[in-house]
């Protein structure tokens, strides 16, 4: 049985598209970048910690497989996680305005005997955002709980001039990499 170690409704939606039955584990894993921890290492670590904590919850379930994932927006080696509040979201959007940033999604799949990980990297270029666009986007509330204060699959798509990489990876779960990992664990999406 596959378990998704994530509270993200977007990840649930994407995983459902693969047609593999799964359960959802409601975990509370701290997402705090360590001092001097490179952004790439941080994203991988959080995905692994989510999967590991999930496996601990279902260890007694025979054949349990757990998928953990983490998505972060990175600009100038600075991680833009989920904004603390509206002012933080506005700060992030102003910094991203007119610039290209990286979106990393790390995935870890593990069971009692093995672990495999992959990372999806995409480059997202924002349009130059004026005050009106920023105010409008903040008013949608969509920024809440989203890395970098935007959702590519919603109104945030309006902010994006260019995407190089994986759309579903920016959403939070790169479909091709996820399918590949699940196949390696004997699951057939």
From TrEMBL:
E.C. number(s) listed in UniProt: 3.6.1.9
Record's keyword terms, sorted: Cytoplasm, Hydrolase, Nucleotide metabolism
The keyword Cytoplasm appears for this protein: yes
PANTHER family: BIFUNCTIONAL DTTP/UTP PYROPHOSPHATASE/METHYLTRANSFERASE PROTEIN-RELATED, BIFUNCTIONAL DTTP_UTP PYROPHOSPHATASE_METHYLTRANSFERASE PROTEIN-RELATED
Function: Nucleoside triphosphate pyrophosphatase that hydrolyzes dTTP and UTP. May have a dual role in cell division arrest and in preventing the incorporation of modified nucleotides into cellular nucleic acids.
Protein name, per record: dTTP/UTP pyrophosphatase
Entry similarity comment: Belongs to the Maf family. YhdE subfamily.
Reaction(s) the record says it catalyses: UTP + H2O = UMP + diphosphate + H(+); dTTP + H2O = dTMP + diphosphate + H(+)
Pfam families: Maf (PF02545)
Domain of life: Bacteria
CDD domains attached to this UniProt entry: Maf
Main location: cytoplasm
Annotated catalytic residues: 70
Gene3D superfamilies (UniProt xref): 3.90.950.10
Cofactor requirements of the protein: a divalent metal cation
A molecular-function term among this protein's GO annotations: hydrolase activity
InterPro entries linked: ITPase-like_fam, Maf-like
Site residues by UniProt (Important for substrate specificity): 10, 71, 153
Annotated localization: Cytoplasm
